[in-house]
Amino acid sequence: TFIQRNRILPSGRPREKIKTIEKDDPTWAEEYKHFLNLCNNRLPHNLDNDLWINEKLMELSNSIGTKINE
Predict the structure, then answer these.
(1) Are 4 and 17 in contact (CB under 8 A)?
(2) Checking phi first, is residue 48 left (phi over 0); if not, alpha (psi -120 to 50) or beta?
(3) Mean confidence (pLDDT) of the chain
(4) pTM for the complete prediction?
(5) Interval 55-62 mean pLDDT
(6) Three-class secondary structure of residue 6 per DSSP
(7) Hey, is 67 helix, strand or coil?
(8) Which residues make Cβ contacts (< 8 Å) with residue 59, sequence separation at least 6?
(9) What is d(CA 16, CA 6) in angstroms, rounded to the nearest whole number?
(10) Mean predicted confidence (pLDDT) in 6-14
């Protein structure tokens, strides 16, 4: 569902246009197939990569003054 809201200035409830498109999500099937492939083939995990990603996310969080759970 996509909702477009147009502000009414100086204040007031925005006008809304709501559009819903009902069809299959083609990316979901590909992601699920990829996930099953990882599970079935038991590919090796790279913990170093996960730790690096976590470190970068922590740095970004600290740079904008946001506290996240460690």
Answers:
(1) yes
(2) alpha
(3) 85
(4) 0.38
(5) 89
(6) strand
(7) coil
(8) none
(9) 7
(10) 87
